[in-house]
Structure formats: C-alpha cells, structure tokens
Amino acid sequence: MKKLNRFNFLFRSTKGLVLVAISLISIVTAVWGTLSGPMVEWGVRDITVRTLGMELNHWEREGRIIMLYHTIAMAVLAIEVYFITSLVPMKKHQQTNINATITVGYITAMVFGLWFAYFGHEYIFHGLFLVGQSLIFFAGVSLAVALWPWNKEYYLSPDSDYAHTKSGVDLERLAFFTMAVLTLLSAMWGAVTGSYWKNGHETFLAENLIRNPHKTALQKAIIGHLHIMLSLVAVAITLIVGRWLDFKGALHKWAMYLMIVGSITLTLGALSVVWLPWAHTIIYVGSVGVMLAALLFVIFSWKKLIIEGTADKDKPTFMDKIRALFKDPLKFGPGWQMVFMNFTVSGVGIFMAIKLDKIFRVWPAREERITLTGHWHILAALIATIIIMYYWDISGLKGKVRQWAGWILIIGSDLAFAAATVFSMKRLFVKEYFEAPVVNYTMLAMDFGLGIILVVLAIFLGWRLFDLFKQEALWKKEAENPELEINRILPAKPIKDANVEMEVEK
Amino acid sequence: MRKINLPSFVFVLFLLSSCIAQEFKELEPIKYIETGVNPSEWVQIPAGEFMKGQHRHKTIIEKPYEIMVTDVTNEQYANYLSEALEAGKIKIVNDSIMGYYPGDPFDGWKHEFKITAGDKVYMYLKEPGIRIKYDGNKFSVIKGYENHPVTFVSWFGANAYAQFYGWRLPSENEWEKAARGKDGRTFPWGEEISPNIANYNSSHNLFEKIFHKDITTTPVGFFNGKNYDGYQTLDNRSPYGLYDMAGNVWQWCGDDYPNMHYRYMRGGSRTNYEYNLFTWARNSAGPSFYSMYVGFRCARDVKPEPQENNNQTDNQ
C-alpha cells in the first residue's frame, strides 16, 4: 500500500503528473510571455529580464524561441504520454517506467534548456537539455514497446464494439502504436538534423525562409520535422479524446483505419520534403485521412451527447437535441475545437495554397509570416484547450463552475483565434489606410480571449495549489484513485495487471 | 444558445465595423515639422568588409558607393513625377501613374514571379492615405507631408525614380553596411532601442500625440536628438550618418534574385515590433506592391577609392 503523500500524488499518479506538467507549462508561459508583444512596450519585459537576470542578445532571438517551444512541447508530449499510459491497457511496470522516464526527461529538458537559452550559454546545460530530450525519446521507445498491438493479451473479442481486425487486433491500439513510432521517427529526424547545429547549418525560424526558392536539405528536414511533430501531437490528442469519450462502433472502425493510414502517409510526406518536389501531394493525401478520422470522431461524440442528453424524452425536439449537445461544454468542446480548426487553420491553409502566387506572395513577407505563424500557434493552442478540457473533466469540475469554465475556454479561445485569423487576412477586405480599427479590434479580441482563459486557468491552478495544502482534499482522492476513467470494455481475455484490475472494479 | 449567439453577433458586428467606407478622400493638411536634416544629402560608404546578417558573416563590398542620408521625401518624389511627366517617361492611366519596365529574366521556377516587359504601376493616385496629388498639370504634396518619406510607391516606381536621375536602389548588402557599419551592430545606433529613437510600434511619437495615429510616418531625420515641443528624440544615425535606417518605413532594395523576383525591403516600419528593425531583418513583396509603410532611398556609384583602413573605420 502506497503511503499517500503529496510527492506520490504529484509524481507517481497520472492525475498528479498531468497537474505538474500543466502547472510547469503555465509558469513558463506566464513568465516567458512577458518577453514579447505588448509586454515589451509596457516595460514588463525589462522587469522580467532584470529580476531573473536573463541575458538576451538580439541576434540569438530565434535560438531562444526554438529552445522555448521545445521545452513546452516536451511537457505537452509528457501529458499525452501520461494520458496514453493510463488509458491504454499495459503492464503496471511499463506505465511506471515510461512515466518516470519522461517526467525526468521533460523537466530536465525544460529547466536546463531554458537555463542555457536565457541565462548565459553554459554548454553543460545544453548537454543536460539533450539528456532530457534523450530520456523523453527513450520513454517513447518504451511506450511503443508497451503499445505493441500484436500482443494477444490485448486482442479484442470478435463481438467487440471497438475497431478490430478479424484476428482481434485492437485498431485503436494500433493507431496509438503507429502514432508513437512515427513520432519517434520524426523526433529522430529533427535530432539528426539538429546535430548539425553550428556544424553545417545555422539557427533559423521556418517562417523566415518561406520565400527562399533554394533551401538546403537541412533546412527542409527541420521544416518537415516541426510540421509533422505538431501534426502527430494533434493525432495523439484526437486518439486520446476518442478514448475519453468512448469512441466506438462503425465510425470508430473507419476512423482508426483512416487515422493509421493517414498518419503514416502524412509523416512520410512531411519527411520526404527533403528530396521530393511533390511531397506536398503526399501530405495532402495523409491530411485528408487524419482529418476524416477526426470528423468521424466529432460525428460520433456529438451524436452520443445528443442521445445521452435526450434519453429522458420520448420524442426530443430539435431544440432538445441542441440543448443536449451544448449541455456539457467540456465534452462538446473537443469536437467543436476540431471543427473550428478548419476555419482558422486548415481552411486558411488551403485558401493560402490556392491563392499563394496571386495574393499572398505579392503581399509583404512579414504579412505572410503572420498568417503562417498564426496558423500553427492556433493549432497548438487548440490542442492545449482540448487537453485542459480533459483535465478539468478529470478534476471533477461540476455544475456552474464546469459550465462557466468550459464555455469561457471555448468562447475565449475561439474569439481569440478568429480574431487572429481576421487580423492576418485583413488585407483581403480592408484598404491599408483603414486598417487601424481592424487591427485594434482584433488585437483587443485576441488579448481579451486569451486573457480570460489564462485568468480562469490561473484560478483553477490556484485552487489546485491551495488544495495541496489541505488535509481532506481532492488530491488525496485522486491519489487513491490515480488512473483515468476508462469507459471501454476490456479485452476478451482480461489480464492480471494492477492497471487493468482497477478498470475491472469499475 | 445565447452563449453561442452572442460572440457570433459580436464577431459579425466587428466585421461590419471594419467594412467602413473605404472610398478615397484627400488627406487634411498637417503641421509641418522642421527637423533640420537635409534630405538631399548623400554620404559615401567605403568599399570593404562588413558583418552581414544575423549570424554576422564577413562580406565584402567591392566598390565604394554613395547613399542618401534620408529616405526620398514626398516633395522629392512629387518633383520627380512632374519632371518625368514632362519628359514623357511616365503616363497617367485611370489615376495610376505608370512607366515602362523592361522585365526580369524568367526561369519557370516554382512560385517564380513572371515579370514581363511593359508599363507598370508606380503609384495609384486614388489610394486612400496617399500624400501626393495631381491637379491635371503637375504633382504636389499635401501640406505638412513634404518632408515625410514617400509612401505608396511600388518597387517599379522607386526604381524609376532612381534611374531617372542616373542612380539606383541600393543592394541589400549596400543597405546593410550603410545601416550597421563594420561592427555588426543590431540597430543602426547600437544595441538598445527605446521609444524615442525610432518610429516603430512602441514609439508613440510626437505625431501620435499631437495628431492621430493615421499619420503613421515621421518626417525624415526626425529622430536626431532634437526636442520638438517637449518631445525629446534620440539621435538614430547609423555609423555612416544615415537617418531612419530602422523604423518609419520599410525601404525597397534593388536586388532582383533569380528564380523568385520578390523585391526585398529593409529597416522595418511604424507598425513593427523591434525585432523587425534589426539591421539584418528582411521583408519582401512583389514589385507591384505598394504600401503606406514602404518607401525607399537611393544609392549611386562613386569612383573607386583605396580600401578603407582601420583608422577610417574607427573615425566613423
């Protein structure tokens, strides 16, 4: 019997580990967010720099940014891994090893990566940053091993509602496994290219190279790496929320096939930009597969919400169904954010691709850059909102708090992302001389939307911090019941494993 | 449902509000500000090495050259247009000032701009916010804007101006060396930036205080250490004495790179955060693009002189 203490909760339970990672990301975002944008002219950056003793050379700005988003990305990967090791059946010792390795890895990478980038360039810290990333990679290898889909212990019964092959291979497990292997491949791709840093290529931000018709192989490899890593993070969260909301049935089967084939195609396309002039065609094909899989999940999850929300009515009206759909923002939200992504990310991307030479390449590169950086910031932030929705659900937010928090998260983020999209496209519908109101309103909407989310998140984390100091508290309950709720029917032949036994009890 | 409808309503309202009347209306005159800087001055930049780009690669400029101390002003450009019209070098078609450009070589590269020979738009006289007007006979500047940098001029228009007087647009290398000297500095004046040293997003300069934000530009050479009605500026000259090599308006450069034909701009503008004002920061657009945030200055060849020595550099 584990001794229930705070350390065990924070660093040995899934719920605690996710809380730690979200908290660390929030702290880094809050502090490092003061270094750019309006914070600069308000003088906040100078205060941060002076107080913390940062050393910011202008010519190293890109390098710092790269280190910063790598450290945040590592923590996000860790959160997804915690979800996966809790949601997908595996041995308890596998879960423990994977979680421990990735936790040490991402915290090491985060602390020493930022230390190296922002507080003088002590190369020992850069080495430790690489150690951290290596541990994360090793955790990924262990995860892939744990997810091995052809382990008969995890085969599904022929009458299972969940996607499976005739022989019983769990297709969702296969999708998780595929995603994990592809992520490892893509991470390796970036690591190998990154090893040429200062030894063949120089730090750059991809958006600064967009108009250069002759990119080096190393530059193309980095561009492929960053795009596919974010895409695979999105694939992972889609699979995770599918698990959370008990995705099953015919749509599940189609979605898993599409997701597996789509992920493989997308990854091969993204990495082949190095040598294939028509790599984008492969990418488009892969993207269609992945996005169709996500669409099937959205259809399933919304239909489920409507059915469950109108179960007490014999003949629910249209409005009853709408009310049921919107009843729980945290469960409606993941699907909605995936739909919304099409307006602010995919739609914008397709439009840009079609009108690239006629419109966007005539515009200043800095404008095109805003659109490009905007679209991946929005995609990353949408993933973050889905993670938060899931975590708020795990934390047991109920009643009005759940409603308010959920809707603020959805409306605030969508308002900000829509405003960012309008901001980046403003030249399409307003003459430059009249841009000022559009710029002002959109900036205001972005600041308001993101600001209100950050306030709610800060209140939530403040509550969780306060809760840690209480004796009879949520953290204790979570420590006693550390794993995520799994709605899924167990494999045909249940395994004797602590992690799964817990599910059986439920 | 109300929760969904409210933001949708606000969003639609916002879109409608942004679709306010966008028709052309001539600008009101503004107060003329004398900076004491002469926009007709040139400065010589010696041939030799400089540190180029963010990663400071040693780069050599083979020949010395001269470059304008300030951006070309509205007054200078209006005078050019009047002279060029008289000389038959430009024509006005549907309120567009146009002139001939011989075209760029085309290699059929992916996304390569095809720029054929023919008449190109230099400036559109009915563009909202434009500071130059035409009365059917000659060109003039709306009062108060005479010494502001000319804007709304395409690369074709900037290039034509330079060529009309036997000059050229500076190459990116020439522009960068003129901006940062030999020591690889980040800004033309050094390493730090503050609101009263350049016209950029954070500057909130005198023009914003006494007029309104739509002015967007400051007169060339405005940030020269002078005090304007209580607004104390800092001197933003580069090591070679050029003003406004960071902020105010982006500046067209002359290079035509094969397989792309975008034209590059340097310096950053009123709308940009500080990192766009770095001496190595680049921007680009199609040569037909014009903007209220883009201007230019010219360069010209000089007779080759002996390469500069260290003492000369130290003196700069």
Could you characterize what this model shows?
The complex is a heterodimer of chains A (506) and B (316). Chain A has 506 residues and is mostly helical. Among the domains of chain A are: 8-146; 328-483, Up-down Bundle (Four Helix Bundle (Hemerythrin (Met), subunit A)), CATH 1.20.120. In chain A, 73% of the residues lie in helices and 0% in strands. Chain A is built from 18 helices and no strands. Chain A has helices at 6-12, 14-32, 38-41, 44-52, 61-87, 92-118, 123-146, 171-194, 217-244, 250-271, 279-309, 318-326, 329-360, 365-394, 399-424, 435-468, 474-480, 498-505. The model of chain A is unreliable at 492-506 (pLDDT under 50). Chain B starts with a helix and ends with a helix. Chain B contains six helices and 16 strands. In chain B, strand 5 (90-93) and strand 6 (96-101) form a beta hairpin. In chain B, strands 14-13-12-15 form a four-stranded mixed β-sheet, with helices on one face. Chain B has a three-stranded antiparallel β-sheet with strand order 1-4-16, covered by helices on one side. In chain B, strands 5-6-7 form a three-stranded antiparallel β-sheet. Mean pLDDT of chain B is 89; it is low at 310-316. Chains A and B meet through helix 15 and helix 16 of A and helix 1 and strand 14 of B.
In the CATH scheme, what's the topology name of the domain at 328-483 in chain A?
Four Helix Bundle (Hemerythrin (Met), subunit A)
Q: Show the largest interface.
A: A-B, 45 and 54 residues
Order of helices and strands of chain A: HHHHHHHHHHHHHHHHHH
Proportion of residues in extended strands of chain B: 15-25%
**Would you tell me the structural class of the helices and strands of chain A?**
mainly alpha
- Alpha plus pi helix count of chain A: 18
CA gyration radius of chain A, whole angstroms: 23 Å
Oligomerization: heterodimer
Question: How much helical structure, as a percent, in the residues of chain A?
Answer: over 70%
- For the report, how would you describe the main beta sheet of chain B? 4 strands, mixed
CATH C-level class of chain B: Alpha Beta
Number of helical segments with 4 or more residues of chain B? 6
Number of strands of chain A: 0
CA distance, first residue to last residue of chain B: 68 Å
From the spread of the alpha carbons, the general shape of chain B counts as globular
Structural class, from secondary structure content of chain B?
Answer: alpha+beta
CATH superfamily of chain B: paralog of FGE (formylglycine-generating enzyme)
